[in-house]
Amino acid sequence: MAENKKNDILIEVRDLKKHFKVGPNAILKAVDGVSFDIRKGETLGLVGESGCGKTTCGRTVMGLYQATDGDVIFDGINVHKLNKKEKKAFARRAQIILQDPYASLNPRMTVGDIIGEGIDIHNLYKGQERTNRIYELLDLVGLNKEHASRFPHEFSGGQRQRIGIARALAIEPDFIVCDEPISALDVSIQAQVVNLLIKLQREFGLTYLFIAHDLSMVKHISDRVGVMYLGNMVELASSDELYNNPNHPYTKALMSAIPIPDPKSKKNKSRIKLEGEVPSPINPKPGCRFASRCRYAKPICNEKTPELKEIEKDHFVACHLF
Amino acid sequence: MEKILEVENLRVSFHTYAGEVQSVRGVSFHLNKGETLAVVGESGCGKTVTSKSLMRLIPEPPGEIKEGSKILFNGKNVLDMSEKELRELRGADISMIFQDPMTSLNPTMKVGKQIAESLIIHRGMNKSEALKESVKMLELVGIPNPAKRARQYPHEFSGGMRQRAMIAIALACNPKILIADEPTTALDVTIQAQIMDLIAELQEKLGTAVILVTHDLGVVADVAHRIQVMYAGTVIERGTTDEIFYDPQHPYTWALLQSVPRLGTGNKAELYSLGGTPPDLIKPPVGCPFAARCEYCMDICKEAVPEVTKITDTHSVSCWLKHPYAPKIELPEALRVGGIE
After folding, report:
1. Which residues touch B177 (CB under 8 Å, ≥6 apart)?
2. Full DSSP string of B131-177
3. Closest partner CB to B43 (pick from A49, A186, A277)
4. DSSP for A22-81?
5. Claim: this prediction has a pTM higher than 0.90
């Protein structure tokens, strides 16, 4: 994809932090100092286990959460320092597709109104033009115009996710955060939705931040992939590089845990076992977050948080081993 | 090999306002001692209903296990058992791990007590013996600090630990059959690997037969001995794991196998996707249930249900393409041996 190779950066995330106060002396550090760029027209995948902060990260980038610290620069504007009017203008350019297609559509609104809501808010089209635009969007995501007058409960999971995608596309955004758009769907339906997202990206030059825990799907759709662990970015590289040559001990374990749908390749593949589970992000200990489960942990790992270093061109790792 | 469970012509329906939903329509299979049988298929294909029926866990009404169905556990028909016999069967001989560890534990009971419950009922232990045993079970499933954990409530456990606790409950009485209904769908990959390893390890240690209900073909490839593929309430193909992965016969199995991205395939290449939706089981089609979505569909497919064709002793398929008069269809290129990474 030639257009994706352009190096102009659409979003710059610098040392982003999002902390939640969960008790008198307890601070949940959901995102704790994450930096990355997203180039125009590319898909950046974000993977990690539940609770690692990937969803919070996506939402903070969108400006749905106010960042505790750090900056998100979207095409030259700082997302967290906008006034009301500027915020509305920004909202037209950045949209989100949510995880649960059963919970993210208002059950009392028709599909047409769900899709048309953004159009109304931003005063894009009126009357017949608005209706035509909604039909066009439905057609684009593989539904038809009869569906506009129906309600969400009349649709299957895959169809609902298409409605969610149509809603996000309605105001012609540049950037879409896809927050686990396929994890609630069946395998065969997942492929349909992923194909649709790729097709739309080609057609409109969209930029995606694709959040998921299904590693093989993320690799398939992403140009680059970032791996998060407990609020930190531990590794960031092009998707082929990351999957073929993972460097961080956590990424290695994560990659080796992907079940491969082929009995033979499986049996001669040795799996790196991770002991224990992700520790709590509430008042995390200093040092590398992964140290407690890492088999290479050295004393320094418990003292100093490693920084994201470029070990090869465009391959970043945060680990004291490098 | 010794058969521990035989299911013959199982038919289960649910009576709803819209009509009778025929969730399971004539499923027959057997389970050997100590093996892992994977049941795969899309949501709504009847895999969960089938496995719940084995323990008579289908609420009746609205559910109904039809006349003529047989579920023989060690030669005895589960469908003829009294409520008392069923209580002895459930948990002691056959037990189940449910999909969602967040909702299938009792939130108001300490975890240790939930494990002890079945030990008291089935193994006649007194309370303190059972609690001691439950600590041992928690240790067996790899929960650190089991004595303390046994006195905690489910909300104090993480997702992976709750699933481990569920496994501890299910295995407490050394059941002969463990039904694992999507045991890892709610979990992360690294935890999923831990849980699947744990089930395999315990299976070896205790000689339990496992029925693994899932839609994750990666997990299936890793642990299953045999696979049966379900579609619209019927089994359309079954065989050993190698047979299903390397010599699949049914177009639906092809579609399933092709729709998962393989780590070797090119980025952003179009994934194979199966169009259409499964048939409405209130009015199931007369012919092959897959006919409407099948790219090789012939006239006969819409008129009559295909017979079961045996490929090998372990491999069978229900598809008209196997009929001697049918055109020979080659396996899609992506699935030929060597085509798989």
Report:
1. B4, B5, B31, B54, B73, B93, B94, B95, B208, B209, B210, B211
2. HHHHHHHHHHTT-SSHHHHHTS-GGGS-HHHHHHHHHHHHHTT--SE
3. A186
4. EETTEEEEEEEEEEEEEETT-EEEEE--TTSSHHHHHHHHHTSS--SEEEEEETTEETTS
5. no
- Half-sphere exposure (CA, 13 Å, Cβ side) for B231? 27
Rounded Cα–Cα distance for residues B334 and B257 (Å): 9
Q: Give the Cα separation of A63 and A81 in Å (integer).
A: 10
Q: Which two tokens stand for residue B255?
A: 């579609």
On the CB side of B302, CA atoms within 13 Å amount to 8
What residues of chain B lie within 8 A of the CB of A192, using their CB?
A: 273
Task: Tally A–B CB contacts below 8 A.
Answer: 128
Q: SS3 of A260, please?
A: coil
Instruction: Determine the residue among A187, A214, A222, A254 to mutate to test chain B binding: the one whose Cβ has the most chain B Cβ atoms within 10 Å.
Output: A187
- The answer to whether A262 faces chain B, any CB pair under 8 Å, is yes
- Most A CBs within 10 Å: which of B161, B201, B263, as the mutation test of the A interface? B263
Indicate the helix (H) or strand (E) that contains B127. Answer: helix B127-140
Interface predicted TM-score (ipTM): 0.74
pLDDT in tens, B128-148: 999 999 998 888 887 888 888
